[in-house]
Amino acid sequence: MLLDWSGLHVFHFIFSSCSQKLRIFLSLKGVDWKSHEIDLMTNENLKEYFLGINPRGLLPAIVHDGDVHIESNDILTYLESVYPEPRLIPPGSEGKVAELLKHEDDLHLDLRALSFRFVFNPPHDPKSPEDLKLYATGGSGTVNGQQDERVGVEIDFWETYAERGITDDVTRAAAEKFRKVFGELDETVSEHEFLLPDGLSVLDIAWFIYANRLMLAGYPLARLHPNLGAWYTRMEQMPEIAREIELPPPVKEKFDATRAQHVAEGVHLEAVAGL
Questions:
Q1: Whole-angstrom Cα distance, residue 269 to residue 275?
Q2: What does pTM read for this prediction?
Q3: CB of 14 within 8 A of CB of 243?
Q4: Paired sense of beta strands 8-12 and 34-37, if any
Q5: pLDDT attached to residue 83
Q6: Average pLDDT for the chain
Q7: Is 239 exposed, middle or buried (0-12, 13-18, 19+ CB in 10 A)?
Q8: Which of 13, 128, 165, 185 has its CA 20 to 30 A from that of 234?
């Protein structure tokens, strides 16, 4: 029974952006944890075992001394209270951090859309009708004793993806959201080394992972947002972060080939979104 587990257990996947965010956080904290990798590529997150842990089927999830936590930003806030040093949520900034993390979380489906069109580019639909039926019926349908609407949002995303993929309109809308928020962050780091004046925080980790994924998709971060581009360079030089974003050679080759094909066909992100 996982409720009897001691220590920190992390359910995650290598290319899950929220999992990357958590792993960097734990590395910077120097926290020991036991890994439980859930393969999103084979839809292991929709199996009964994992849906019993997280009815939303999303990663990461943690079990800490028998207590289950399932929302990535809630997990970070919780772990900050358990492992307070070094500080990654500065005292007095909790409200601002929570607000900006929610803003980041609200863009998650936009990040996923751009990732699947321009980075992963799968040859077939990632979720079959059978997968989605399992998703709809495999979990409890509740989180913290209340009916959970997130599963419906996830199913809608994958059904729409199966029907028409990621359209140019969806691409442009998602890219414009990121251009706006990156513009705001660019102004922030023109005045401070990091996103908060206190120094490195969980906000830097969260937005770095988004920036990294968008750059893999072909987003011209340094050209559009030079201050944020310099911030990104500072961040990626940290060993805890550099290790996390290093791609295995076969994966890098696949991503590079996808980008080259899109460029050759004139359907790369900059062209489609007019960046």
A1: 8
A2: 0.93
A3: no
A4: parallel
A5: 96
A6: 91
A7: exposed
A8: 13
